[in-house]
Amino acid sequence: MSAGAPLFDAAMIQTILLTLKLAGITTVVLLLVGTPLAWVLARGRGFWNDVLGSLVSLPIVLPPTVLGFYLLIAMGPQSPLTAILGHKLSFTFTGLVVGSVVYSLPFVVNPIRNSFQAMGNRPWEVAATLRASPLDAFFTVALPLARPGILTGAIMGFAHTVGEFGVVLMIGGGIPGQTKVLSVTIFDYVETLQWGKAHILAGGMLAMSFAVILVMLLIERRLDGGRR
Amino acid sequence: MIAAAFRGRQGSFALDATFEAPGSGVTALFGPSGCGKTTVLRCIAGLARLPEGRLTVNGETWQEGRHFVPPHRRAVGYVFQEASLFPHLSVRSNLTFGLRRAKGDRRIREEEVVALLGIAPLFERPTTMLSGGERQRVAIGRALLSQPQLLLMDEPLSALDRFSKDDILPYLERLHAALSIPVLYVSHDIAEVERLADTLVLMEAGRVRAAGPIAAMVSDPALPLIHMPQPAAVIDGHVVSTDARYGLSEVAVAGGRLIVPGDLGPPGARQRLRIPANDVSLGRNPPQDTTILNALPARIVGVEPAAGHQMTVRLALGPDGTGAALLARISRLSWDRLALEPGQIVVARLKAVALAEPPAVADAGGLRQP
């Protein structure tokens, strides 16, 4: 530890804020994309539904570097996506959001999907016989009943995005203020032997992760208890 | 008027059901478990779709060929076996869920339904704190307030214990009396059906065995109802007079008048009577010195063998034998000793005449108003 240098410097604050911003935006996008997707997966039947479900769950088993590699190619200068958008997404904040959404998708979709499945067909049928159109029933019956799953999904998505490393490194590099998030920063600190700063960030992450899981458990217990 | 025809397979189950139900009163879909009653009801609500289906309700075609009205555009109220209240909504919000979405004029008003079903005291409680019978009452009210042209009830009592059943049956009867919309009622409990239904659709293994007015169906020798262990006749009549001194009412039925315990309401009030065959005995002469109040002339229409050396005698009330159908369960020995035969005029003695209520309720005596 070099004496005199402050433990909290501007770069560190910037990294933390960037990470929170990334995780926040990603979580919102994930809920907007993931909830309808979870609904389709929960209600759907047949082979293609299983194919879709497998695709969504792929990031759970795929090494982040593999996912990052393909995302890098998809967002790189040569890709059709870049041609359509007119500029490349790799090594930008937007690119990072897209990558994080893909990477954290199963952690949001699966709990919501389970919630939709657990409520069964009956509330849906009751709503229909009470003149609620499918869209109406989705917002007034299915979504409120899936609230525990949506909450779990949101927390998981947020925490998972905060913690991602491999994908971020592959498609974001480490541009300070743009793509240099917490996990990458910790790696940098360790590599440059700034153990003290690494300790602060790593310890903070540890505490936050523990708090997230604890809060989630408490919320689940609360919602379960309220239903009985 | 409801005209329905559904044909097709649902998994391994084959349904081929065609029937018509009148545009008023209660029509019961009756049959053993797994005979396809619920599937028919789901098809009518549009919750299930069989490709070969045809359905017309009050002149409006809901399904024919490729034309299929989705469930939320059909003016049906559906009461499921389990109340299925929305757990995230209050009792009141559950009740008005359909009302808020109903199209057209609201003939069925909230205050009426709340009064009819006695729901008001439940408003303050969360849905999880209601008893089974209370939940089902809210569910029935919820279905009614969606302003249906047709009320579908899928064994609404079967998930309830006997206590809750007794709690809810009177409400269903009041509903029957107060409502002008037709009700399709699925049940496998004949006592329930005999108490509530006007028309009976008898189902067997995915097919409609027979359909018609319930009084004729329960005594039809070609149908299984009369061959059940404890058959009963169902007779509709109206109150002629009541005698408060003795706590009795006189009810006029086709072919005679019956004395029934209880004050059954003002003269003219419609009453459904259920007379178990076991409570009817036969004689050749009017009885003398007997405690039996009801002894009426009737003609023997036919006779069916029953288990245990007994016979079920089909009768028509009245000295000319043109009145309401009655059943008597007598021993084979009595039949031979009295030398009875079809066509004869006999005297039917009715040991007990009660309002059509299931035996369990009658035993408890709980529903017979003093």
TrEMBL record, chain A:
Family: Belongs to the binding-protein-dependent transport system permease family. CysTW subfamily.
Gene Ontology cellular-component annotations: plasma membrane
UniProt keyword terms in alphabetical order: Cell inner membrane, Cell membrane, Membrane, Molybdenum, Transmembrane, Transmembrane helix, Transport
InterPro entries the record matches: MetI-like, MetI-like_sf, ModB_ABC
Compartment annotation: Cell inner membrane; Cell membrane
GO MF term list: molybdate ion transmembrane transporter activity
Segments traversing the membrane: 12-39, 51-73, 93-112, 195-219
Role according to the record: Part of the binding-protein-dependent transport system for molybdenum; probably responsible for the translocation of the substrate across the membrane.
Protein name as it appears in the record: Molybdenum transport system permease
Main subcellular localisation: membrane
Residues covered by the ABC transmembrane type-1 domain: 16-218
Bilayer topology: Multi-pass membrane protein
TrEMBL record, chain B:
Cellular-component GO terms for this entry: membrane
GO molecular function: ABC-type transporter activity; ATP binding; ATP hydrolysis activity; molybdate ion transmembrane transporter activity
Domain Mop: 289-359
Segments forming domain ABC transporter: 6-230
One Pfam family linked to the record: ABC_tran
Gene3D superfamilies assigned: 2.40.50.100, P-loop containing nucleotide triphosphate hydrolases (3.40.50.300)
Keywords: ATP-binding, Cell inner membrane, Cell membrane, Membrane, Molybdenum, Nucleotide-binding, Translocase, Transport
Domain of life of the organism encoding this protein: Bacteria
Taxonomic lineage: Bacteria, Pseudomonadati, Pseudomonadota, Alphaproteobacteria, Rhodobacterales
Species the sequence originates in: Phaeovulum veldkampii DSM 11550
Protein name, entry field: Molybdenum ABC transporter ATP-binding protein
